Amino acid sequence: MLTSSPSRLMLPSQYDDESSRNSRQITQLGFLVMLMVLHTFSGGVDTTNFAFLKNYNSQRDQRSTRPRSLRFIQSQSDIVANSSNATATTTRPAAVVTNHVMYTNFSSSSSTTTSSNTTTTTTTSSSSSCILQPNNPMTKVTHPIPDPPPVVEEGIEEVFCRMHENIQRHFPHAMQQLYRCYSMWRDYPKAKPYLTVPDSDWQQWLYRHPFLNGLMAVFHKQMHMSTIVEEDYSLQMLQAYENSNVTIFQTVVGSDYSIRHVRFLQDIVQKELQLDDGGNEKSRDSCSSGTGSQKKPRIGILNRSHRHNRSIINANEIATAIQRFSRNDTVKVKYFEGSYFEEQVAFFQSVDIVLSPHGAQLAGLALMNAPCGHVVELFPKGYSVPNFFGSLSVESEKNHSYIYMSANSSRFDQAKTRKQRAKARETNFCPSVDMLTDSIRRVADEWRQCCEESNRT
């Protein structure tokens, strides 16, 4: 009978001969050397992250689809990112990880080290370290001027506008509908306006959204608009027919219904919010400020947060470069994330020229009430819809130009599937500062010429 100390007892399959034991020792030594190299390279290895990597490798299909080069983020001060997307930055005073890249509020000089598949950038100067993207020339949007208000039927005392159910509570598309409903209501200025929504959830969403809630308040207080839900709609109509002899006009406002009466909309919003341009001047008097070369527009950059996509990474650098074209040599850089209706309207009514990436933050641009206003919109490679917000600009009496961030024409790059379009919209922007400086200079010259012509009439 074989006896052995319990601590030495092993199954036959677990015995090591000398060669296998030596092989295992060599493997262990190699593993230790790898750890030392990693420790030296990174300034320390986080064992929690390392354990996660082991689990990640064994279950990568279930756990993540991120590029393998992004699995190990060393610390709060640096990151290694996939260089095929963009350049990563280090020493972040206020940085976030987004779109597989870290961005920071750039404040110092930058140095870059590059390996075969990764790029690490340390920021130490005032210039940004994002990789400059090619672009097409700036192009102006052409869109028909809205038709004059139609000749309306006399005797209509109530006007119902029904919102489409299929816009899925998407803010820009909801704004499309509300602009059209407003236009139809104003076509019948003596009629009582109604907005009908599909259900009570829709109604709650309208009044919870920070911008929509503010706009709905303007419609309620300044136009005496009432909201009713779809399930009550038939009852509402029946009661109206039974209790009065009025004619009820009801429609689902289609996509071909342009925004009209935009100045009245701007006026009632300004009246409700009691806004002016910082107490200094009304936006509609902007053209009367200064003379000759001293006449300068108020320029603003409406950016998107780094936590979201389509952010202009070098926005502060661009603002510094173009400030000489702006009134008081100042360029506002504004973010709408977390901003309410009043803040967004105040920004739109304090600028003459806006540079912005494509995005929902532009949905309120119809409230920009300065004469000769101009919006310059940036589009990422693979996604270009210049007539979406461009038509809103033109119909609300502004110019609209766009810059497509690719060396190719948008008709060659345009994404064909929903998945491709979604991927294209995830791209952040790093436009050439020189290119944008020249573009904004030309827009400012056009604004000055427009003002001179309008002052003569």
TrEMBL record:
Pfam family of the protein (one): Glyco_transf_61
Name by which UniProt lists this protein: Glycosyltransferase 61 catalytic domain-containing protein
Record field: compositional bias (Low complexity): 107-129
Cellular compartments annotated: Membrane
Molecular function per GO: glycosyltransferase activity
GO cellular component, one term: membrane
Region (Disordered): 1-22, 107-147, 276-299
Compositional bias ranges of the Basic and acidic residues kind: 276-285
Chief subcellular location: membrane
Alphabetized UniProt keyword annotations: Glycoprotein, Glycosyltransferase, Membrane, Transferase, Transmembrane, Transmembrane helix
Domain Glycosyltransferase 61 catalytic: 240-373
Comp. bias intervals (Polar residues): 130-139
Phylogenetic classification of the source organism: Eukaryota, Sar, Stramenopiles, Ochrophyta, Bacillariophyta
Membrane topology: Single-pass membrane protein
